[in-house]
Design a protein that fits this description.
The complex is a heterodimer of chains A (73) and B (552).
Chain A: H1 23-27, H2 32-35, H3 47-70
Chain B: H1 6-25, H2 38-41, H3 50-61, H4 64-77, H5 84-109, H6 114-122, H7 125-156, H8 164-185, H9 188-216, H10 218-232, H11 247-261, H12 265-272, H13 277-286, H14 288-298, H15 300-306, H16 324-332, H17 335-373, H18 379-403, H19 406-421, H20 424-427, H21 438-458, E1 473-475, E2 486-488, H22 489-510
Antiparallel strand pairs in B: 1-2
Helix pairs in contact in B: 1-8, 1-9, 1-17, 3-9, 3-12, 3-17, 4-7, 4-15, 4-17, 5-11, 5-13, 5-14, 6-7, 7-17, 7-18, 7-19, 8-18, 9-10, 9-17, 10-15, 11-19, 12-17, 15-16, 17-18, 19-22, 21-22
The chains are: A mainly alpha (73), B mainly alpha (552).
């Protein structure tokens, strides 16, 4: 059981405008028209494949950025 | 025959035994005062740092079966199988803010399972029981599938016999060893073994990614070979690109699978075992390394096409596409390296199998045993029940694989993804809002479950010649739409679940039907390591952080 409610300090909430960036790597991989094509090829990989693998980097970049900007100090 | 594979088998056995030894030693690793507590046995002391968590969750989510089945999908159907990549990209930003809330509330209340959380949040033992049963039912076939992963390797090495028992003897031995060290070491065993497993897999794949194109004329030639194969095949849905009919399926399957992944109890086990919120957030950036790995492994399916690999047959005469990756290694790599690759897959099956059996056992212990059989169970009793249940769960998975057609496990796992999604409103949305009425959540669960089952039942599979439960791509024309498009069953089912839960909430509120209270408070969702109010067996003496952060 929990004790009496303490007021939440502002930092306690996870709210931050930076969080909206997280939508980029959620939406980007779902727009198939972006990458559902063969050309241009990169190192022999059709666009369908290299672009989706590249989106992994977008995901990593975004979550890293959001983490760094919202980190508690 | 197995005599052609002696070196591979020798390397496989040596690595497998080495890892088993690690599993037993794990009981002494970061040794607690008392292993006979669910926080210790089932959650490794809730104290894993960034690296251990990365290996543990990575080894847990990206299972041996995934590494075998995803390339098999590309081998057979092409681009549609690549959904695994967008799926594992979406997942981390999607759960970035969700998992930390789950960690915090579980840290403060001592929750071990998602059903523990639901019980407290909605004060509904019935809803919690439904969540627990859903979790157990969804996890069991997943464990069985790990055995299918090991079997594909053993089959390729020619380690097969006649008769149900003889053919499965190696797997039975492997699982007996696994069961023994999971029993004695708990979550520490898969956590320690994951280091070995993932290192092996990373090495194998890095080598394969450069060596295979060198042998097969470059990645361009590999994709061209796959393209040529799909052009020749009569099926309309294959090809190295998506077509008009399967794009919606691709998108909804990626999104639906992403929504489902962290609802699986075993995924949450890895999350709750980490020591603080930062570990989880940092891992959301680090875990996609496995997604890249998975993307590259998926492409081995095309390499198998370019290398003219012919899959081995199932006993009933259909192709066992799960053997294409092991066969590819057998064909193009030196025997010793193929042996290492096989060991990586075999050991890769042990880590998730161990964590899944621990998660299923914890669900039983916390949400059935303690809730209905022994209210006043001590932590030691809980740990004992969990240990014994984890054994039973593994025996159950073995029985499945030995006596039932493996195809049945694959079907069940498909169903598992759809049914675990039905816990989304209570578990995931429950972390953010207490708006839903507990009765409405039960109603939504029933609606989503019913619809999902009906849709899966309607789907035939041409390749395995089955009339029902043949896949997860549901043709929209069955709903009366004039369309040839398909959509992922789980996605539709969870949408209906949410709709029903929302409508019922409004109705139940309007008619003043009693709703439960809420045992959690707002600040519970932000608690971090060193929280003074944490309900833990090992009180933390460290003072809480008090420095206010000016950024709201």
């Amino acid at each position: 059981m929990t004790g009496p409610e303490r007021p939440d300090t502002p930092r306690a909430a996870d709210k931050s405008p930076w969080n909206w960036l997280l939508f980029i790597p959620i939406v980007l991989p779902l727009v198939t028209v972006w990458y559902n094509a063969d050309s241009p090829r990169l190192l022999g990989f059709p666009r369908f494949y290299w672009m989706q693998l590249a989106i992994i980097a977008v995901g990593v970049g975004t979550t890293t950025l959001v983490y760094q900007m919202t980190k508690r100090r | 025959m197995w005599r052609d594979h002696q070196l591979e088998i020798a390397i496989f056995v040596i690595l497998f035994l080495g890892v088993s030894a690690v599993g037993f030693v794990a009981a002494r690793w970061r040794r607690p005062d008392n292993l006979n507590h669910l926080d210790e046995w089932g959650l490794g002391g809730r104290n894993f740092g960034g690296w251990i968590t990365w290996f543990l969750i990575g080894g847990d989510l990206y299972t041996a079966y995934t590494f075998v089945a995803v390339p098999a999908l590309l081998f057979a159907a092409g681009a549609a199988g690549f959904f695994a990549v967008p799926y594992t990209v979406i997942i981390y930003p999607l759960v970035f803010l969700v998992l930390v809330r789950m960690w915090s509330v579980s840290h403060r209340h001592g929750f071990v399972t998602p059903a523990d959380f639901v019980r407290a949040r909605f004060q509904s033992p019935t809803l919690a029981l439904l969540i627990a049963i859903t979790g157990i039912v969804a996890t069991m076939p997943y464990i069985a599938l790990q055995l299918v992963g090991i079997e594909s390797v053993l089959k390729t090495m020619g380690v097969t016999g006649s008769g149900a028992i003889a053919r499965h003897l190696p797997i039975i031995i492997a699982f007996a060893i696994l069961a023994a060290y999971t029993y004695s070491s708990g979550l520490r065993a898969p956590a320690l073994i994951a280091f070995v497993k993932d290192t092996l897999i990373y090495i194998v794949i890095l080598v394969a990614v450069f060596y295979l194109p060198y042998k097969l004329g470059g990645w361009g030639a590999i994709f061209d070979a796959a393209d040529a194969k799909f052009d020749k095949s009569p099926a309309a849905t294959d090809g190295i690109l998506l077509n008009a009919n399967n794009q919606l399926q691709y998108i909804t399957l990626a999104l639906g699978s992403a929504l489902a992944l962290f609802l699986y109890p075993h995924s949450l086990t890895g999350v709750l075992a980490s020591k603080n919120r930062d570990v989880i957030k940092r891992n959301m950036s680090a875990l996609p390394a496995y997604s890249l790995l998975l993307g590259l492994i998926a492409l081995l399916g095309y390499a198998a096409i370019a290398a003219n690999v012919t899959p081995l047959k199932n006993p009933n005469g259909t192709n066992d596409n799960n053997t294409v990756v092991p066969l590819l290694f057998d064909k193009l790599f030196p025997d010793w390296f193929a042996g290492v690759a096989y060991a990586a897959i075999g050991i890769g099956a042990l880590v998730p199998a161990a964590i899944m059996s621990i998660a299923a056992a914890n669900l039983f212990t916390r949400n059935v045993y303690r809730e209905y059989l022994r209210r006043d169970a001590t932590p030691a009793q809980e740990a004992t029940v969990s240990k014994v249940t984890s054994l039973l769960v593994k025996v159950g998975a073995l029985v499945f694989v030995v006596f039932v057609d493996p195809q049945f496990s694959i079907d069940l796992q498909l169903i598992g993804g759809v049914i675990i999604l039905q816990t989304l409103p209570a578990v995931a949305l429950g972390l953010f809002t207490r708006w839903f009425h507990r009765g409405a959540l039960i109603g939504g669960w029933v609606a989503g479950m019913g619809l999902g089952m009906w849709m899966l039942y309607q789907i035939p599979n041409a390749a395995t010649k089955r009339a029902h439960f043949g896949g997860s791509a549901f043709p929209l024309k069955e709903f009366g739409f004039d369309s040839t498009k398909t959509i992922y069953v789980g996605f539709v089912a969870v949408a209906v679940n949410l709709l029903v839960a929302a409508l019922l909430t409004l109705i139940l509120r309007a008619t003043s039907v009693a709703d439960g209270g809420d045992d959690t408070s707002r600040s519970d969702y932000f608690a971090d390591e060193g929280d003074p109010r944490a309900d833990t067996a090992h009180p933390v003496s460290k003072a809480p952080e008090v420095a206010p952060d000016p950024i709201a």
